[in-house]
Amino acid sequence: MEQELELYVHIPFCAKKCNYCDFLSFPASQKVQQDYVNQLLSEIGNTASICGDYGVRSVFIGGGTPSLLEPQHIRAVMDAIRQGYHLNRDAEITIECNPSSAMRHKFSLYQKAGINRLSIGLQSADNDELRMLGRLHTFEEFLKCYQGARMEGFRNINIDLINCLPMQTLKTWKKTLRTVLMLKPEHVSVYNLIVEEGTPFAGMQQEGLLMLPSEEETLAIDSFTREYMEKMGYQRYEISNYAKPGYACRHNIGYWTEVPYIGFGLGASSFFDKLRWSNTRELSDYMAADFRWEEGFSAVRQEVHALSRKEMIEEFMFLGLRMSEGVSETEFLLRFQRRIDLVYGEQLRKFSELGLLSHEEGRWRFTPRGMDLSNAVLSEFLLEEEV
Ligand code: SF4
Predict the structure, then answer these.
(1) Strand 3-11 relative to strand 261-264: parallel, antiparallel, unpaired?
(2) Is 26 in the pocket of ligand 1 (CB under 6 A)?
(3) Which of 180, 244, 318, 372 sits in a 20 to 30 Å window from 310, CA-based?
(4) Nearest CA to ligand 1 atom 6
(5) Which of 13, 23, 129 should be mutated for ligand 1, with most atoms under 8 A from CB?
(6) Residue ranges of domains in the chain
């Protein structure tokens, strides 16, 4: 049987940086965008020979803002993938869109390029919050974008939201979530705001100008989200991801269940042939690489390494616990030849007693409250030494 593979394509361009964002993205001229796409096509084409035995189950074109590119660039990327790889007939093919750059004519060209899933970054349905986040679109522009996508025939749409924003209250968040769910998207991702170093928000926080919700308000926002999403028929299949039955994102699930993936473009990471690596984050280095030769790839790929046993165990727990399915103690034993309780007995006991983990039918899972506090809990699953 063909092995499965996922492909990720990074488009690092944005019209303007949002105030909270530390992703690898920046504004660039049309010429730079065009040159970058040519380089991407070369990387994609020259990687294909090592992927002959793999069936591609998903492609994710992310960023940055992929919808900023001319749609024919996206078409060229998809053509290069089709030409060099075995794209499964039912492959999930997603592109991230920003409501300020996703116009209806682009959706029709995305359809022609075989893209069957959109992920639209809305973040909030409140125009004041959107302005404060530094977003370039209003809620009304998002609506136009969403309706345009539906009219062009997209039947699988994710909407990205961020909560626990400065000055946000449970009331304003409820309004955002209720408004968004009225649109009946198939998938919703909800992230708590994290103030990342080096962003304008971090500067404001240092000056005491960022009024974030208290811990109590954050818990109330999280509980409401969880309960309301469930009431409206969405399953929480991962800490930040909710989907209608049958619409969980296959690409994300692949990451969390260790399906091999190859990332193309600036800063993209890969996990292939038991090795992990990340492409350079320097645009000039990426643009200078000649992918016709092995040296071109080695100049771009950084931190190529195989995971140690300790790292594999940690990753198994981090990725598995993120999913609502949790981790199987039998699978742990089969993979690592050690019982899970001999490695993590203390953590499993402690978080079960606190009501954050549950143990049923041989699987360890977060409880709903555990999912809300997952960052703090997961950090205790780092191992101090090899086991
Ligand atoms: S559009 Fe997305 S990637 Fe670009 S700056 Fe804003 S949050 Fe970051």
Answers:
(1) parallel
(2) no
(3) 372
(4) 18
(5) 23
(6) 3-255, 309-381
Q: What is the tens place of the pLDDT at every residue in 167-184?
A: 999 999 999 999 999 999
Contact between 355 and 365 under an 8 Å Cβ cutoff? The reply is no
Asked if residue 120 has its Cβ within 6 Å of ligand 1, the reply is no
CATH 1.10.10.920 fits 309-381, yes or no: yes
Q: Which atom of ligand 1 is nearest to the CA of 20?
A: 7
Q: Encode pLDDT of 245-273 as tens digits.
A: 999 999 999 998 889 999 999 999 999 99
Closest atom of ligand 1 relative to the 21 alpha carbon = 8
Ligand 1 atom 2 nearest Cα: 64
3-255: in CATH 1.25.40.10: no
pTM, entire model: 0.95
Decide if pLDDT at 1 tops 70: no
Taking only Cα atoms into account, the Rg of the chain, rounded to an integer number of angstroms, comes to: 21
